[in-house]
């Protein structure tokens, strides 16, 4: 059985595991990224030791990992491994991460955007059931996206940064987004958008069991307990998500759209208003034929997608090896 080292470098956590070509994992690990300590610290004291630790664990278990797959929470050029001003890594600027790692590690390394690899992981080993085209969205602090087409290819666009689905505009006069635009899907359907919306009404004096400082998980719990403001907040972001889903459905005509990320754990609180709005706005054929599902791989989606990426360069992930 062949194994690879698979790692998901996020703005909050670094996750990783040894993964074989059936999607089975060994030595699953995670640790805080600590981005506030700067780029050099994250790379030299967090990421490199984390990868080296997984390689050593494999050696102790008698497994020789063939290569490394890396998911990164950043706009990047996947062919050259260059990050472009990642919002989750302040101060990193334009940085050649792939070259940096190849100079320090003896194994072959392949990388891509974390949301792209989430979509790929769900496509092969998760809710996607190898159906394509597949559109994946990660709903968390922001919104990431990835498109899998032609039975396992990732859509990268001309410059490698295609698939930034969280930055489609759904309201030209909407709230500002971290990307500099206004009314992006990310600014109106993420966990951050939910918290901002609820806080705005709390400051206006709306009655609620919630108080200032509540996070998205607090709001979801309050909604489950019937809090009117929390329920209204989920209806607002859910409808916004539905607008985005309809636009993506009409653009890509996928077989399936898969929703993951922390906010997706709210389940039908989010999905019910999203599906209602999606059905109202999508073209009839897309409305009636496209399925919308919750992701099944949990926080391991990016890690498993990174493993598929590594295997694909060797020509053996699933049925469509070597085609990314």
What does this structure look like?
The chain has 10 helices and 13 strands. It has helices at residues 39-60, 97-104, 114-125, 185-189, 191-203, 216-224, 228-252, 268-281, 284-289, 301-314; strands at residues 3-9, 13-20, 25-32, 67-72, 76-77, 82-84, 94-96, 108-113, 134-139, 143-149, 153-154, 256-260, 291-294. Strand 9 (134-139) and strand 10 form a beta hairpin. It is globular and about 60 Å long. The two termini are 22 Å apart. Residues 318-323 have low confidence and may be disordered.
Topology:
Layout lengths: L2 E7 L3 E8 L4 E8 L6 H22 L6 E6 L3 E2 L4 E3 L9 E3 H8 L3 E6 H12 L8 E6 L3 E7 L3 E2 L30 H5 L1 H13 L12 H9 L3 H25 L3 E5 L7 H14 L2 H6 L1 E4 L6 H14 L10
Parallel strand pairs: 1-4, 4-8, 9-12, 12-13
Antiparallel strand pairs: 1-2, 2-3, 5-6, 6-7, 9-10, 10-11
Helix pairs in contact: 3-10, 5-7, 6-7, 7-8
């Amino acid at each position: 059985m062949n194994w690879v080292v698979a790692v998901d470098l996020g703005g909050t956590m670094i996750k990783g595991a040894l993964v074989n070509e059936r999607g089975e994992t060994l030595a699953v690990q995670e640790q805080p990224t600590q981005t506030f300590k700067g780029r050099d610290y994250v790379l030299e004291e967090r990421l490199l030791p984390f990868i080296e630790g997984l390689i050593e664990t494999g050696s102790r278990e008698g497994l020789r990992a063939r290569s490394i797959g890396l998911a990164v929470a950043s706009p990047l050029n996947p062919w050259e491994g260059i990050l472009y001003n990642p919002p989750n890594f302040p101060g990193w600027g334009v940085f050649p991460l792939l070259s940096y790692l190849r100079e320090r590690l003896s194994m072959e390394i392949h990388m891509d955007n974390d949301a792209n690899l989430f979509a790929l992981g769900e496509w092969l080993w998760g809710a996607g059931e190898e159906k394509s085209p597949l559109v994946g969205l990660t709903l968390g602090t922001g919104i990431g996206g990835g498109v899998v087409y032609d039975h396992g290819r990732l859509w990268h666009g001309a410059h490698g940064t295609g698939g930034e689905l969280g930055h489609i505009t759904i309201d030209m006069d909407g709230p500002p987004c971290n990307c500099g635009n206004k009314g992006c899907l990310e600014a109106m359907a993420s966990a951050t958008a939910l918290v901002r919306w609820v806080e705005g009404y709390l400051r206006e004096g709306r009655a609620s069991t919630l108080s200032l400082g509540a996070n998205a998980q607090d709001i979801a719990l309050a909604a489950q307990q019937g809090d009117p403001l929390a329920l209204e907040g989920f209806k607002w972001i859910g409808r916004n998500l539905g607008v985005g889903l309809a636009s993506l459905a009409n653009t890509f005509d996928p077989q399936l759209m898969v929703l993951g990320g922390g906010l997706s754990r709210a389940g039908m609180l989010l999905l019910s208003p999203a599906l209602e709005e999606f059905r109202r706005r999508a073209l009839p054929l897309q409305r009636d034929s496209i399925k919308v599902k919750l992701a099944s791989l949990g926080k391991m989606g990016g890690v498993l997608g990174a493993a598929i990426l590594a295997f694909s360069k060797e020509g053996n992930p699933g049925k469509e090896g070597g085609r990314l």
